[in-house]
Amino acid sequence: MWKLWLGVLLFAGPHLFSTLMPAARNSLKARLGEVPFRVVYALASVAGVVLLALAYLDGRAGPNSLDSFYDPPAAGRHINMLLSLIGFILVAASHGKGHIRSFVKHPMSLGMGLWSLGHLLANGEKAVVVSFGMLLVVCVVDIIFSTARGKVPTHEPRIRSDIVAVIAGVVVYAVLAFGFHPYILNVPVAG
Question: Which of 13, 147, 169, 188 could form a disulfide with 92 if both were Cys (CB 3.0 to 4.6 A apart)?
Answer without folding.
Answer: 169
